Amino acid sequence: MNKVPYSAEHDLSCIGSLDELKEMALACSRCGLRAECSNVVFGEGNPTARLMLIGEGPGAEEDRLGRPFAGKAGQLLDQILGAIGLERFEHTYIANVVKCRPPGNRAPRPEEARQCLPWLYRQIELLSPSLIVLLGGTALQNLVDPHAKITKARGQWLHSKSGIKIIPTYHPAALLRDPGKKRPVWEDFQKVRDEYISIVNG
Ligand code: URA
User: Fold this and answer.
1) How far apart are CA 202 and CA 196, in angstroms?
2) Looking at ligand 1, which residue's alpha carbon is closest to its atom 7?
3) Predicted confidence (pLDDT) per residue in 133-170, tens digit
């Protein structure tokens, strides 16, 4: 993963719990997105899950409900997880690159992501997952390499310095637009399932 983008004025390393981090993130207005959205979508799931999923940013439904992947892409994600025997609230924790909805569902701008990423990095540290699935190019580019292409990087395991195994795949919303992406995503999630099983079985 990229170097943790903490700046002195946004050092969250002293925040010792997810609840405390959430409370602070909900009060954040470091970028212009907060002024235009209804809810800060911190993330949700099982805080002891071995598997973390990271998307791009909240859409309209997520903004309305304050929950990640609550709309159509989320329903598809639930089906994909179900197909590999996992249930989102029991087996995963889900968050996004940015916690506030970019207007019109545009991708977050680099400066917006830069301001928001410290929340996600501290979230990852506190959750300490074994596996991370990056859902789509925005997550890949913001967490791994700004020049990476999801078409090339998907389906290949990467390793963070802290030992987390990371796999990029297409975003579920991309599957809704292009059913041709279903097969590669299925192949990628089979890899996730195999790795997950080997981790939980020790
Ligand atoms: N797309 C995302 O990237 N994240 C969400 O939470 C919902 C849709």
Assistant:
1) 10
2) 69
3) 999 999 999 999 999 999 999 999 999 989 999 999 99
Residue 9: per-residue pLDDT: 53
- Is residue 63 within 6 Å of ligand 1 at its C-beta? no
The verdict on residue 66 lying in a domain is yes
Closest ligand 1 atom, residue 67 Cα: 6
Residue 45 Cβ < 6 Å to ligand 1: no
Count of structural domains, the chain: 1
Query: Domain range for residue 39?
Result: 18-201
End-to-end alpha carbon distance in the chain: 24
In three-state secondary structure terms, 96 is strand
Query: Which residues lie across from 53 on neighbouring strands?
Result: 94, 133
In-domain check, residue 149: yes
Q: Which residue carries 């990423």 as its tokens?
A: 117
- Sequence letter at residue 47: P
Q: What is the pTM of this model?
A: 0.95
Contacts of residue 48, defined as CB under 8 A and 6 or more positions apart, other chains included, come to: none
Question: Does 137 sit in the ligand 1 pocket, CB within 6 Å?
Answer: no
